[in-house]
Amino acid sequence: MGLPDAGKLLRQSSLNLPPGPFPLPIIGNLHLLDLRRQDKSLMKISEKYGPVFTVHLGFQKVVVLTGYEAVKDALLNTADVFEDRPAIPIFYHIQHGNGVFFSSQELWKTTRRFTIATMRDLGMGKHLGEERMVEELHFLIELIRSFKGEPFQLRFLNMAPTNITFAILFGRRFDYEDPTFLTLIKIVWVGRDL
Question: What's the pTM value of the predicted model, to 2 decimals?
Answer without folding.
Answer: 0.43
